[in-house]
Amino acid sequence: MVADNILSPTKKSGFFFVHKKSNMTSHDVVWQIKKKFNLDKVGHTGTLDPLASGLLIICIGKATKLAFLFDHLDKTYQGVFVFNQKYDTLDVTGKLIDTTNIVLNEQLIQNSFACFHQQTYLQTPPMFSAVKVNGQKMYHLARKNQTITLPPKEVTIHHLEAQSNLKDNQISFITRVSKGTYIRSLAQDIASKMNTFGALSSLQRIAIGSYSKQLTKTIDALTLDDLVEDISFFATCDKIILNNYLIKLVKNGIYLDHRQCITEKPFIVQDSNHNFIAYYDVFEKNKYYPRYFF
After folding, report:
1. Same topology between domain 14-70+212-232 and domain 75-208
2. pTM for this prediction
3. Residues that are catalytic
4. At 228, is the secondary structure helix, strand, or coil?
5. Does position 3 have pLDDT exceeding 80, yes or no?
6. What percent of the chain has pLDDT over 70?
7. What is the CATH number of domain 75-208?
């Protein structure tokens, strides 16, 4: 008898849309799903800080190699900024290291938000982050009181809007940002425009691209029926059908070229029965490499 919580051979690769609770690490979610469903290969498409809750996309089986599908997608968050307080982690889970009594008002907040709304700027990642320096994650160095200033990275704040009035130096917000944006750093950067300190009080990721929190379930509520199979993510992809001889070569990892296909976009290779065989991406002009096998 096969246990109910073991993946069947016909449904062994795909994604779970998980609601991560606050005070959990992304690794905690991966570990709990591994344990719940007796899985070997489990990963995620992008870390959520322990403070944050919301959408975490979990990759299962071969789909752990498909995290790149989500790399370029914007992220949408709701949360609360707190001003006049400085934390070593840039959020309220850290050590409070300074305070000030700058008098803030709605107009000052709006002017500061406007400096970032629909803007691209150079953002410095926080010391307490998973960015690696010489093979070590920054937060490991930070806990050893080693200070390293990382070079700033270009990020885009596509949308930034206050969702409440200022109260007790706190204000709720919604923002949509590009890949690699740290909302904790954004809190600090917004505050610096007002000559004060800023930190993140709470955060929820409500969307990754078009994938919203409405798709999510908590780990406890999750079942295997919630696994979204890898093939469903390629429905709109261009497709080409190759003969049996070429299909054998494709399965062995052959590069394709203009003799099989001329395109500037990734595509799916299918056999004569329309089975998905491989996902190919552009290597150089008129040359394509296999990035994923079904």
Report:
1. yes
2. 0.86
3. 49
4. strand
5. no
6. 90
7. 3.30.2350.10
